[in-house]
Amino acid sequence: MDEKQPVKIEDNNFAQILIAVLVIVVTLILFVLYRRRKATRNCVLLTGLCDSGKTLIFSQLVHEKFIQTHTSIKENIGTFIVNNNYLKIVDIPGHERLRDKFLEQYKELTRGLVFVVDSSTIQQDVRDTAEFLYNILVDSCVARNGPQILILCNKQDQTLAKGSNVVKSILEKELNTLRVTKTHQLASVDPKEKKIASLGAPDCDFSFANSPYKVDFVETFACSKNGAVDIEHLKAWVAKIA
Questions:
Q1: Is 121:161 a contact under the CB 8 Å cutoff?
Q2: Residues whose CB falls within 8 Å of the CB of residue 9, separated by 6 or more in sequence, listed in order
Q3: pTM of the model
Q4: CA nearest 79: which of 88, 71, 67?
C-alpha cells in the first residue's frame, strides 16, 4: 500500500492563514470591548434650564403619567425599556448651582443627552440656555465620548412657542457668539487652551450640522390644557440609541 505523504503548507499560505486568524481575534476583542463600553454607558441625561419641563418629560417618558412638578434639587432616575434593552433615564436639576455637579457625576455614563428647551421663552432665556449648552458641548469628557444629542423643543402647546427650526437658528447664532467670546477669553489667558473651547470649524459661523456631534431637533409637549401629550419623537429617538 502507498504510504500517505504529509501535507505541506507553503510558507506564504501559512502566513496568510496566521494573519487571517489574528485579524479575527483582534476583531472579536474590539467587539467585546465596544459592547462592554456601550453597556457601561447606558444613561440618557435630561438637561436644561429650570422650568423647561424636564421633570414632566421624565414622568411621561418613564411612568407615562402626569405629576405635579417643582424645582428639583436632586436627580430623578428611572428606567426606559425598549427592544429588550434597559436605559437609565436621569433628570438632573436645572438650577445653575446644582446642574454642574450632577453633570459631572453622570457624563461619563451618558449614551444620549437630551437638552430640553422651553420653546415659549427661548428668546428671553437664550443667553442662559446657550451658555449651559455650550458648556456641555465643549466639556472634554462629553467630547471624548461623543454621545448623541437631542434638542427637545418643549411646550409646543403654548401660543408663543417657537418651532424647532426657529429654536435651532436662535441657538446657533448665540452659540457662535459665545464660541468667539470664550475662545478669545481663554486664548488671552493661555493660548494652549484655545483648542478646548473650540466648537466646530473656527473659520466659519457655528452650525449644528458642522459640529462634532450628531444633533437632532424635535418638538414636544408633556401636558397641554386638555391633558394631551406628545413625546413620540422623543421615544423614537431614545429607542434609536438603545
A1: no
A2: 17
A3: 0.80
A4: 88
* pLDDT tens track for 54-84: 999 999 999 988 877 777 788 999 999 988 8
94-137: pLDDT as tens digits? 998 999 999 999 999 999 999 999 999 999 999 999 999 999 99
- DSSP string of the chain, one letter each residue: -PPPPPPPPPHHHHHHHHHHHHHHHHHHHHHHHHHHHHHH--EEEEEE-TTSSHHHHHHHHHT-S-------SS-EEEEEEETTEEEEEEE---STTTHHHHHHHHGGGEEEEEEEEETTTHHHHHHHHHHHHHHHHT-HHHHHH--EEEEEEE-TTSTTPPPHHHHHHHHHHHHHHHHHHHHHHHHHH-GGGHHHH--S-TTS---GGGSSS-EEEEE-BS--TTS--B-HHHHHHHHHH-
Cell matching residue 162: 417657537
Compute CA 10 distance to the chain's CA centroid, rounded to the nearest angstrom: 52
Cα–Cα dist 12/179, whole Å: 56
Q: pLDDT tens for residues 152-197? A: 999 999 999 999 999 999 999 999 999 988 877 765 555 544 445 4
Residue owning grid cell 418613564: 62
* Nearest residue to 172 (alpha-carbon basis) of 220, 129, 111: 129
